[in-house]
Amino acid sequence: LLALFLSFPALAASPTAAETSSGLKEALTRGAEAAVAQLGKRDGFLGDKRVRIPLPDSVRSAEKMMRTLGAGKYADELIETMNRAAEAAVVEAKPILVNAVKNMSFDDARGILAGGDDAATNYFRRATSADIAKKFLPIVKQATAKVQLADKYNDYAGRAAKLGLLDEKDADLDQYVTQKAMDGLFLMVAEQE
Fold first, then answer.
1. DSSP track, the chain
2. pLDDT at res. 90
3. What is the pTM of this model?
4. In the chain, what percentage of residues exceed pLDDT 70?
5. What is the reported pLDDT for 12?
């Protein structure tokens, strides 16, 4: 993003604070839009190893057994459903990310410019995570409801979490997919940065 920002000729030569802020906001908006566009298409998650959502760790041993017994299609269906849900949900992030840029304070902009390589991504995480999660979760729930394995997973994982065998955050498939979709989005935002 900073390379894009510095490519604006008028801004490269002694920009004013307002010009710097405006140029940064333009670069951040373009980067956010590019990240959403990359993930919000068919195979945006499923076809990209960096962001592809796997089954949670707690059921990977069951997945191996299913594949050994010739029932791998059920695991594949769940994996595909989780990733398609993420692809559908991520488009909802665009207006939230753009709004975060519009509402960015001068101090936020200065912090991003003075911050490290991931300063913009950290700003987006801080400013948008709650709103993005609220938008993603219903879309993910609708998609995973189509696969009855999601209900079985939630039941199994809920018991495992109560026994301390599973991290509480992975005990609900919809929450797991929502978090992984957000992680993928912020990874792509970081790449744009």
1. -HHHHHT-HHHHSS--HHHHHHHHHHHHHHHHHHHHHHHSSTTTTTT-TTT--PPPGGGHHHHHHHHHTT-HHHHHHHHHHHHHHHHHHHTTHHHHHHHHHHT--HHHHHHHHHS-TTHHHHHHHHHHHHHHHHHHHHHHHHHHHTSHHHHHHHHHHHHHHHTTSS-GGGSSHHHHHHHHHHHHHHHHHHHH-
2. 95
3. 0.77
4. 73
5. 47
